Task: structure prediction
Amino acid sequence: MHRRLIAPGALAASLLLAIPASAASSSPGAPGIGDPYYPAYGNGGYDVSHYDLRLTYQPRTDELEGTATLLATTTQDLSRFDLDFLLDVSEVRVNGAKASFATSGQHELEITPAKPLPKGTPVTVVVRYSGVPSTKSAYGFSTWHRTPDGAVAADEPEAAWWWYPSNDHPLDKATYDVSVAVPDGTQAISNGTLQSTSSRLGWTRYNWRSNKPQATYLTTLAVGKFDITTSTSEGGVPVVNAYSKDLGDNDGAARASVERTGELVDWLSGYFGPYPFSSAGGYVPNTTTGYALETQTRVYYSPKQFANGSNTSVVVHELAHQWYGDDVSLKGWKDIWINEGFARYAQWLWSEHEGEGTAQELADYVYTSHPADDAFWTVEPGDPGPDDQFDIAVYDRGALAVQALRNEIGDDAFFAVLKGWPKKHAYGNASVDDFRKYAEQVSGKPLAALFDTWLFQPSKPAVSAARGVSLARGEGVPARPKSWKRIAATDSVHGR
Ligand code: TRP
Ligand code: ZN
Result:
């Protein structure tokens, strides 16, 4: 050590170092990551870089068991930290040593390592667990979906608690290896590429790898009897799709839509830049709810999306999210407009491409079909609040705001922003405010007033306020009842 002058305070500090550092200063990690919409979601004190899930699932009984190994780094001196989880834990090890654990709150697994963990050090957490996910709930609900031949984990903003322990917030993205053993004849689908399968003792194990940062809610699992198709897009993106063998009448329309994934990924690349992941695709299990979800690289589609025939629009929507939502994730759930406004706008661009109405015509339609007293206008897409996070207004008002931006800054700047944004924040997180600043920088125009008018007002903007709308038409369409409720929705959201 170098000899130097020691100030009295420094001497005191160096004496403190004789005591185990952590005993003096370590504290528990926060039980939430600090998102005002969902205060208990995610956790504080560490950052996960990789999840390794090695699981076994029995569809007959809905029993899930296995081991999760998390690679993390501490962001503070930690005496204790939480994971978000609902299944039954039998053992936890931290850096190889047994740790004690307890449950608290709605979905907290509190882990106390044998020794406190100093800030900035790598930590390996091993959690052994089992349970019947369909018997667990938090806040009175469950997002685990059983099907006649298996189960599906795909939901937003929360899906992980029912199948793996995590730091459940998009701010903490990580890579994943998901390995699931299922009875022979059954398939397990997850994100990324299928590295291998192996079979023994009546069980087949599927090893999936998603090698780019991925938010916890975008990590998906489907078990069931699937037909898996593989191909490569013209642009070179490998595509893996999976269809339940039990889709009945919807089978043809599902395949006629989802098999166009490669074509649509390439088409979207023209607007958003190179596809950010090493694999693309979707799966259609035999679920009964109406949703689709942008699960990273492997989109979840409810069969209901295809009940009226092919639906390339929903495929475009979910694939657009691969750039807007998955590659660039939101910083907080209030930033949902960046996900849904742009995914909806991509559907408008597709409509224009297909000759079914231009983006401007669809914007005009949204504007004129909701009279000023429609509750639609009370939802601020820029900060809708947790109850209205997925209200139709976040989608349609949200895309209308995108059109207003386009009209304000002109096509050259607009399409430069559309393509530049995923590049600027690749594999990261960003907010609505970050987006405004970026659009201002690219266009050279101040945009605070435009954003305020179209995203942050609980009322219908006047046509003169900004150029979101090209024509003021008659307001003849009756008010729509407020439609988004947790279970009810995406049928109308993604109508063909
Ligand atoms: N993000 C989804 C989409 O736009 C919609 C969605 C919101 C959703 N909450 C959900 C889907 C819960 C499934 C479950 O496509
Ligand atoms: Zn969406």
